[in-house]
Amino acid sequence: MSQSETDPKDGLRLRARLRYLYHGGQPAAVKFRLTVIVIDFAIIAFFLAAPILKNMGWAFYVLDYLIAALLAVDLAARAYAYSDIKDWLKRPIVWLDLFILATLLFPAWLFNLGFLRMLRLWTLLNSDFFWRTVGARFDDTRVEGIVRALSGLVTFVFVVTGFVYATFRGHDGISGYIDALYFTVATLTTTGFGDVTLPGPLGKLLSIAIMLVGITLFLRLAQALIKPHKVRFPCDRCGLQTHDPDAVHCKACGNLICIPDEG
Description:
This is Two pore domain potassium channel family protein. The protein has helices spanning 3-6, 9-23, 27-53, 58-81, 85-89, 92-105, 107-110, 119-125, 128-134, 142-168, 177-188, 200-226, and strands spanning 231-232, 242-243. By secondary structure, it is an all-alpha fold.
């Protein structure tokens, strides 16, 4: 075996390269992360269409395992690029991604829990990885606040839709995924047409939860759209995190602050 095949420096070079790609600010690293984000959105689209695509038979499982391989490679690369793998494994988002990977590796057994895969949309749009990549023009702005609020609402809709489809499929009114989506949106908006209802105490409790959480998410989205924009600039005296973009003094303690004007 040659020296190049056993040289430990090769592993260090690979880790340095992965850190550069996943955390660097140079154009090449940003382009790489944009590619990863585009692939992530394609994977999320597959998760969304999975209840319908499952009727494709063996072709569905081929696509399922291909996406599992992509996700596994991405997770392994992120773990290797992280400075402390034990610390990386303590992050809840990592365990969520590992669970999603498990549903892809064992689709025949865990498919009914596949609706939780849509949580990847929320984790992606609320991650520093995403906002560092799309650029400082949107990071920590009103756009970010609106996108984060909207991601919570959209994710909730499709997670609940998947749960309703997996749990109540075959009951009166829920014969397909579209019926489950229709019920979720009608309940979420408190429209309540009543043509599609869920049976039993579980169905009633789920409907109540959808209405209560839905109102909360709508209010959060409205707040993000209407509330005056704040910039993140911690006060060095009292620690207040956000201020008006044109603030000269801290609203909490009156300390003189100097917020950089990037315009």
